[in-house]
Design brief:
The chain is mainly alpha-helical. It contains eleven helices and no strands.
C-alpha cells in the first residue's frame, strides 16, 4: 500500500504535469471551432478555466513537497512556456493565466519525507477527487466532439487523430489518479510496459501532427518529423512485443530513451523557432511547448526505468 508521504508527493507531481496538459487540451479545442459552434467554444473555455483552478491549487500545495527531479525535468514548465503562452494569448485573444507559470518558476523541490500531515493528505485527496470529475467531463466532451467530426456534423481545425490522441491522454490521467486514490503501489515492471507502450505511440503521433502542420516549404523539418514518426511507430510495436515477452523490455527502454532524447531536442528547437518566428507553419507556439513537456515527462520516466532494469 502506498504510504501517506508517497500518496501526497505522487498526486501533486501528477497534477503539476497533467492538469496543465488538460487545460491546454481544452484550449486547443476551444480555438479550433468555427464561430458557428460558439456553444462548444464556451464549453471548452469553461473546462479550461476549471483546469486552471485545479493547477493553481496543486501549485499552492507543492512547494517543498514534490521531487526536485520533477521540477528540473522540463515537464512542469520549460524555458519557453511563458513566452509560448504570451504569444499564443496574443494570437488568439484568449486570456491565458501566465501567473500560474510564474508561480511554478519559484517552486522548490524536496526529497525529504512528508510526515504526519493529515490535513495536507486530506486536501490532496480532495484535489484528486475533483480532478477525476473534471477529467471525466473533459473526456466526455472530447468523445462527443470526435463523434461529431467523424460523422461530419462538426468542423474543427484539429485533426480527428489529435482529438482521439488527447482523449487517450485524459483517460490515462484518470487511471493514474484512480490508482493513487486506491493507494495502489506502483509495480515498476508493469508500469514500464504500460508507460512505454502509451508514450511511444504519443511521440509517434506528435511527430505526425508536426509534419502535417508545417508549411509545405519546410522540407527539412517535415522529413525530420516524418522520420521520428516512423521511429516511434516501430518502438510502439516493440513495446507491445515486450508486453507479450517476445523481446526484452530492456532493449525497448534503451531504444526509447535514445529516441526520446532526440525528439526532445527537436521539439525544443522547434518551440524556440516558433516563438522567434523562424519556422513557417500553422503550429500555435503553445502546442510546440506542450509536446516538448510531454517528451520531457516521458524522458524522466525512461531514465527511472533504465536505472531499475
Amino acid at each position: 500500500m502506498l504510504s501517506s508521504s508517497e500518496f501526497i508527493r505522487q498526486s501533486l507531481e501528477l497534477h503539476l504535469f497533467f492538469a496543465r496538459i488538460m487545460k491546454e487540451h481544452s484550449f486547443f479545442l476551444q480555438v479550433g471551432f468555427t464561430p458557428k459552434d460558439s456553444n462548444y467554444i464556451q464549453q471548452a473555455n469553461n473546462l479550461r478555466i476549471e483546469f486552471d483552478r485545479l493547477l493553481a491549487d496543486a501549485i499552492s500545495l507543492s512547494n517543498g513537497v514534490v521531487s526536485p527531479s520533477v521540477l528540473q525535468s522540463g515537464e512542469v514548465i520549460t524555458p519557453f512556456t511563458l513566452k509560448a503562452e504570451m504569444a499564443t494569448a496574443y494570437f488568439t485573444g484568449v486570456d491565458i493565466p501566465i501567473n500560474l507559470t510564474k508561480s511554478e518558476v519559484g517552486l522548490m523541490g524536496s526529497n525529504a519525507l512528508i510526515t504526519g500531515n493529515p490535513l495536507l493528505e486530506k486536501r490532496v485527496y480532495m484535489i484528486n477527487q475533483r480532478a477525476m470529475g473534471l477529467v471525466t467531463a473533459l473526456a466526455q466532451f472530447k468523445t462527443m466532439i470526435l463523434s461529431g467530426v467523424i460523422s461530419c456534423r462538426i468542423f474543427t481545425s484539429n485533426y480527428p487523430l489529435l482529438i482521439d490522441h488527447i482523449l487517450r491522454e485524459a483517460k490515462f490521467y484518470f487511471q493514474l489518479i484512480q490508482r493513487l486514490q486506491s493507494r495502489t503501489e506502483i509495480n515498476l515492471l508493469k508500469d514500464m510496459y504500460e508507460q512505454e507502450s502509451f508514450w511511444n505511440r504519443i511521440m509517434a503521433e506528435h511527430s505526425k501532427f508536426i509534419r502535417g502542420l508545417l508549411d509545405p516549404t519546410e522540407n527539412e523539418l517535415i522529413n525530420t518529423a516524418n522520420n521520428f514518426g516512423n521511429e516511434f511507430d516501430k518502438l510502439t510495436i516493440e513495446s507491445k512485443e515486450a508486453m507479450d515477452m517476445t523481446i526484452p523490455i530492456s532493449k525497448v527502454t534503451d531504444d526509447s530513451l535514445k529516441a526520446t532524447i532526440e525528439i526532445s531536442k527537436f521539439k525544443s528547437q522547434g518551440t524556440q523557432g516558433l516563438i522567434e518566428c523562424k519556422i513557417k507553419s500553422i503550429i500555435i507556439p503553445l502546442l510546440g511547448d506542450h509536446t516538448l513537456r510531454e517528451a520531457n515527462h516521458y524522458l524522466r520516466l525512461l531514465k527511472i526505468f533504465s536505472k531499475n532494469i
